[in-house]
Amino acid sequence: MLVFLKIANLALLILFPIAWFAPLMRAGLLPLFGLSEISVISGLQSLWESDVFLALMVTGFALFAPYLKTIGLALVHFQLLGRVTLPALTYLGKLAMADIFLIALYIVVIKGVGFGKVETAWGLYMFTACILGSIIISMLTQRMDKPAAQID
């Protein structure tokens, strides 16, 4: 089981950057104009130009939190970092899930206004799967730490 967790976690080190550049949604102002693809990175580029504080927060949630958590879990799996850090690493993954909520909220708001057109793209599902996979890997890693009698 630990070998599977190690491989899955290391795969996330490759999958997260792909998800950051993958299209999260396609948006267009009016039906006459084409849809432009928006990714985590392109969204962050726009944010840095308009709202630096929000850009810092989203960069922390979308890029640093999940990637640091993945690196931390790899260090725990290879016994280079103590298992006492697992609760903090799990919390980092939950912070990253906040970013998925924000993206979903933006899509709902834009669709609700009816002014433009928004379509979700495959990158949103990939990014969500990476975050959820990271949370599951950390939960399973924590469960492996408990004696068999304590596991619910």
What does this entry look like structurally?
With 152 residues, the chain is mostly helical. The chain has one domain (2-146). 72% of the residues lie in helices and 9% in strands. The protein contains five helices and three strands. Strands 2-1-3 form a three-stranded antiparallel sheet. Strand 1 (23-28) and strand 2 (36-39) form a beta hairpin. Helix 1 packs antiparallel against helix 3 (52-77). The longest helix has 28 residues, at 86-113. The protein starts with a helix and ends in a 7-residue tail after the last helix. The model is unreliable at 148-152 (pLDDT under 50).
Write the SSE topology.
Layout: H1 2-21, E1 23-28, E2 36-39, H2 40-50, H3 52-77, H4 86-113, E3 117-120, H5 122-145
Antiparallel strand pairs: 1-2, 1-3
Helix pairs in contact: 1-3, 1-5, 2-3, 3-4, 3-5, 4-5
Helix content: over 70%
Succession of helices and strands: HEEHHHEH
Low-confidence stretches: 148-152
Instruction: Give the tally of structural domains.
Output: 1
Specify Rg, calculated over alpha carbons. 18 Å
Number of separate strands: 3
* Helix and strand composition category: mainly alpha
Entry summary:
By secondary structure, this protein is mainly α.
